[in-house]
Design a protein that fits this description.
The structure is a single chain. The chain is α+β, with helices and mostly antiparallel strands. It is about 45% helix and about 15% strand. The strands form four sheets. Strands 1, 4, 5, 6, 7 and 8 form a six-stranded mixed β-sheet that branches. A three-stranded antiparallel β-sheet has the order 11-12-13, with no helix packed on it. It has a two-stranded antiparallel ribbon with strand order 2-3. The chain starts with 10 loop residues before the first helix and ends with a helix.
Length: about 575
């Protein structure tokens, strides 16, 4: 592929657009993007994913714009290809002639596969954000807010029994396609009767005994198939088929295989250790489907899903400047797609790295309580110069939860003198640096001779003496300061700014359907999210270009009537 600049809009199409949208009539999104941002996605930015030889293909930069417009209008590949042929606004944006036939819809799927294979998932979002920085619409500093939401994988939900059977079936399907003659010599007709149809389409037995027996049958069949593949003289490449490797992992995670004293092989199903079993692997490693090995089961409060987690960050400004002159649209600055089992706090470092790479680090970052910890508050300020505006969880000790005793924050710490003074005025007897859970801490103990006769002992501890476990000085002071500030009215009024990101998530779900993954695998799902973020940004820019203010909370007719009657 030889990168070429995009041709300008066809004169015939430009004249038609000018005639159709003269006066105050708003021009379509595609036309606005071409007029205001020009050649947004240059071909050279995607050169690594396309060869220098072979039959000339469609411009990858223009395919990127087609994909973004496709997300903005929630179209299928076939519908998007049809828009390229028929829609004058799209032809205008892409620089196509009136008679250009466009391309076959399958080109879009191949384009996405190439982009993912070469690690260019975020290239379109990067290019748009860089262009907005050049236009002065974005920049380093200011305020940003981030929140996460769940994403359901593009696979069926399977329980452990169905997962084992479907994994065997998926391996058989792959082998019957790759080496049908080899498979016919290994399995008999009974396997076709059991694995011809999807396992989740069966009417499963209702009794636990029959379910356990079926689960063991699936396990034995899987081990027998793997044994045949690993026997001497068999083609090694068959063992490397993705479906076969997935079967091996599923069997390892869900079954044990031992040899009894009489030489007989015994296959057992793994159960939780709490139920007397051999134990199951942690949730972050446990496969949930043979067709998407990146999807995981996870739970957050009352939501239980199989898939991924999406973190969306956007620029924002104080609520009282929403319609001020010169105020720009709130724009998405980063999307991070992670495993569903990864906690929000573990994702925050990667979010800041991406914002730093784009030159879009905020000064203040608004988050919910799932993201920050005292360590992250200190690290974010030291490493990135970012202040985390988020509620820190209150003291979870008995005294802190009851709010009737002496919590750890009630003790005065003399870091230089290595002493702690309790609310009753007693001074600690020992100061011992230790390592707990891989973190340096300090265990402070008071003398029993001071605690036992103390009249406030009932409010302090049930033990003979009080002990405190302190984190590093900077972490402890940051945590105490944050807990103090978050109780004030000014902090609460400022923190109300965070809730706006939930509207962004709602818009992304309604417009680009991010709730359900379109593709399988973490990389392709993240590609879809990056295109969705780019599309949402263009939609918001179009609204801003046309002078539409940010939507405010709507008031229903019933609420207005009630207000009028009570007024």
């Amino acid at each position: 592929m030889q990168p070429q600049p995009w041709p300008g809009p066809d004169p015939q199409i430009a004249a038609a657009i000018a005639a159709m949208y003269r006066g105050k009539r708003e021009r379509p999104l595609a036309v606005q993007v071409r007029d205001r941002l020009g050649e947004l996605f240059g071909d050279g930015e995607f050169a690594a994913a396309f060869g220098q030889r072979g039959k000339p293909g469609w411009s990858p930069g223009r395919l990127a714009l087609v994909t973004v417009l496709q997300k903005a209008e929630d179209l299928t590949d076939r519908q998007a290809a049809g828009q390229v042929r028929e829609n004058l606004a799209w032809k205008y944006a892409l620089g196509l002639s009136l008679t250009d036939p466009g391309f076959d819809h399958s080109v879009l799927s191949e384009f996405r596969s190439r982009v993912v294979a070469h690690g260019l998932e975020e290239r379109t979002l990067d290019l748009l954000l860089a262009t907005l920085v050049e236009h002065g619409l974005l920049g380093v500093g200011g305020k940003q807010r981030t929140d996460s939401t769940h994403v359901i994988a593009a696979v069926r939900d399977l329980n452990r029994l169905e997962l084992a059977g479907e994994s065997v079936r998926a391996a058989l399907e792959a082998l019957s396609s790759a080496a049908p003659h080899w498979l016919t010599d290994v399995v008999d007709a009974s396997w076709s009767d059991r694995y011809a149809e999807r396992i989740d389409s069966w009417r499963m037995p209702t009794s636990k005994t029959k379910k356990d027996a079926l689960a063991l049958d699936f396990g034995r069949d899987g081990f027998a198939l793997l044994g045949a593949l690993h026997s001497p003289g068999q083609p090694a490449w068959l063992r490397q088929l993705p479906a076969v490797q997935t079967l091996r992992i599923v069997l390892l995670q869900n079954y044990t295989r031992t040899v009894a004293g009489n030489g007989r092989e015994v296959v057992k199903r793994r159960e939780k250790q709490s139920e007397g079993g051999d134990g199951l692997p942690p949730g972050e490693h446990r496969l949930s489907s043979p067709y998407d090995t990146d999807a995981r089961w996870s739970a957050k409060r009352d939501t239980f899903w199989n898939g991924f987690k999406l973190h969306i960050s956007e620029s924002c400004r104080a609520q009282d400047t929403g319609n001020a002159p010169g105020a720009t649209a709130n724009l998405i600055t980063n999307v991070a797609t992670t495993a569903s089992t990864l906690s929000d706090s573990m994702a925050l470092e990667g979010i800041h790295r991406q914002q730093q790479r784009r030159g879009l680090l905020p000064v203040e970052h608004y988050l919910d309580s799932g993201y920050p910890s005292a360590e992250l508050i200190v690290a974010s300020r030291c490493d990135y110069g970012v202040a985390l505006i988020a509620p820190i969880l209150l003291d979870r000790s008995r005294q802190g939860k009851d709010r009737a005793g002496f919590a750890a924050d009630d003790f005065q710490i003399n870091w230089e003198g290595e002493q702690v003074t309790c609310p009753a005025g007693q001074v600690s007897a020992s100061w011992n640096p230790v390592v707990q859970d891989g973190r340096p801490k300090t265990v402070v103990s008071f003398a029993a001779r001071d605690c036992v006769p103390c009249p406030f002992k009932g409010q302090c501890t049930r033990a003979k003496r009080r002990q405190l476990s302190l984190q590093r000085r900077d972490v402890t002071e940051a945590m105490r300061t944050a807990r103090t500030h978050q109780q004030t009215k000014d902090w609460k009024d400022d923190y109300a700014l965070r809730s706006g990101v939930e509207g962004t998530i709602r818009q992304a779900i309604a417009v680009t359907r991010i709730r359900r993954a379109r593709y399988r695998g973490l990389a392709k799902t993240h590609l879809d999210h990056a295109f969705s973020a780019t599309a949402i940004n263009l939609i918001r820019l179009n609204a801003w270009w046309n002078g539409h203010p940010l939507d405010r909370t709507r008031t229903s007719h019933l609420a207005r009537l009630d207000f009028a009657l009570t007024g």
